[in-house]
Amino acid sequence: MAQRLALLSLNRIKVKHWISLASGALLLGLSSGSYASPVAASPDVKAELAPAQIQLYQDTLIAIRKGQLKQAEKGLYQLKDFPLAPYIEKHLLYKRMHQLSSTQALSFLNRHQGSVVAQQFRQKWLSHLAKQQRWQDFLSFYVPTQSSTALHCQYLSALHHSGKQDTALQQTQPLWLSARSLPDACDLPLQRWQQAGLLTDDLMWQRIILAIKHDNHSLVNYLHRRANPGLQAVVQQLRHIHRQPQDLAILQANAKLELHYQQAIALYGIERLADKNLALVLKHWPSYQQQFVFNTQQQQQLKQIIARQLIASGDSQALSWLIKNDPNGDDVFLLEWRILLAIKNQQWQQAQRWLGLLPSEHQQQPQWQYWQARAAIKLQNNQYNSLEKLQALSQQRHYYGFLAAELLGQPYVFEHNRTPSHIDTHDLQQRPAIQRAKVFYLLGESIAARREWHHATRHFTPQQHINASLLAHQWGWHQQAIMSAAKSDYKDDLELRFPMAYQQTIMPVAKATAVQPAWIYAVTRQESAFAADATSSAGAKGLMQLRPGTAKDVAQLAGLSFKRKDLYQADTNLLLGSHYLQQLLDTFEGNKILATAAFNAGPYRVKRWLNQQVEAMDYDIWIDTLPYYETRNYIKNVLASSLIYSHLMGNSRSLVDSHEQKIALPSNAASTAL
């Protein structure tokens, strides 16, 4: 089983698009994927919906789709006080778009000014006006802040057709500088801009660089063909380096290539080469610096790229390379990693000295306060000051606060205080957008519900956010309760911020899999904030963000049936996710730290990191020196959240168990092929 698990989730790690939620000093990352499937509302709240109204609402929408507009008008009249009535009216107007006058369109927009439904209608109406080439009307209805790329291009076309060419030309350059292919609506404004002689070789080059960095090779091909002959030769060099970055030396041999082109191609090529052949970059780095005369910003960019690859590779020369290439500690990123690698190597004197080089604002961060104290204790110097730092940290509810309490042998501080009872959500519930969000949520239309909620709360004060958090919690909408609480000044209501959601599923599943329920809660909160319909950009789905391939393998190992669509079902997702945690625990000999890392980054990567170790390592050092920022913070958040959930359940647990104090490759995984 261990060998098979090594292959599970090889590419599971999600490396971009995370929402950060402040948890005191603790940052909890939430994958900011899309959301598709319905979310089940709390039964008590769902009972508030009048079945007859809901049926009429749904029947009216069906009538509109079928073109039965008279019947739909009757339904709209009967639902005139229903929160979603504006959506029915919007769909009716869509059906009559060709007969609609500007006066009628303006009337709808004025009656629903500032709402989501008005934004949606405006975009549809503007697209209609553009198709009809009603350019003056288009300009009168256009609002820049509610514009897509296509609408913005149609706006530029409207300016051209209305004799405002100069204004249009001034706004076209930012449009051009896109890594993506632009909509057809952009053809006319771009053509006029080029005809005005405003497309320079430099702007063409900038867009080509953007496109190739984003792997948009069809756009690179197109721009290559459109470039002037002199620039085409430069692009040819760029594309050659893309395919064979090891050939960077040919840039120097090309005397016709201007220095700024050489530098841009070299920057791109070195970054690609560092990913493919780091040893070659390290070998030629001094000559690259001399050959391409990089400016300070370019050198810093490349040093950070090389450093990341060195650290990820576990190369023993990483620390010496950092010292050589940033001797004075001017680059904070490189200096921080110099400190961490010194700690990893047990070079505490160097670590303490370099900690003193950090900018003062960095030195005050919990992470560096902790390591300053840890170094002083190891070196047995300045211990009074270090104890003061640890004492201050131990009073804070976050990962480093819990670490400090562990070192001092003191109880953890949780500071759980319920939201003041005088907080009244009545006024908030009277807002039309909040009412619409609630109905959509109760109907399971999660995308529309989130859209209305985010629109309604986007300008809230911290006090309003705690009101919103309390309201969402009452509905059972835990994701929004967590997010709104994080934006408030009141962060000590742990029941709001760490809800015991899906308790009827999690508790039996935890018992069946012998996995701590607090850990399941912590992972689920970190992965989706209890949004059962969450989908990440990497394709992970549901409460515990399982990728279909991983879920299928877990189900087979556990002897469970599995259908891809079931990942959006809370019971199925939690069952499979808990089995996966249990299987990872088996693989890593009961070590939750390693299993948590594997849940995020995949067992393959965790075993690779462990194989790079010379000896067993203290768990706090191991976590802070992992090469992936996301995984480091993921483990910290899950450990801290798990401790908080244990506290809320009335259980007394440690941040880590005794067998997790030292991190090493488990004996049952040592021979596993990676």
Q: What is the number of independent domains?
A: 5
| CATH architectural grouping of the largest domain | Orthogonal Bundle
Largest sheet descriptor: 2 strands, antiparallel
Radius of gyration: 29 Å
CATH class of the largest domain: Mainly Alpha
Number of helices in the DSSP assignment: 40
Q: What order do the strands of the largest sheet run in, or round the barrel if closed?
A: 1-2
The general outline is globular
What share of the residues does DSSP label as strand, in percent? under 5%
Helix content: 55-70%
Q: What's the end-to-end separation, in Å?
A: 14 Å
Q: pLDDT under 50 segments (min length 5)? A: 1-39, 670-674
- CATH topology of the largest domain: the name is Lysozyme
Mean pLDDT: 90
Structural class: mainly alpha
Number of separate strands: 6
Organism: Dasania phycosphaerae
Keywords: Signal
Domain Lytic transglycosylase superhelical linker: 428-494
Protein name: Transglycosylase SLT domain-containing protein
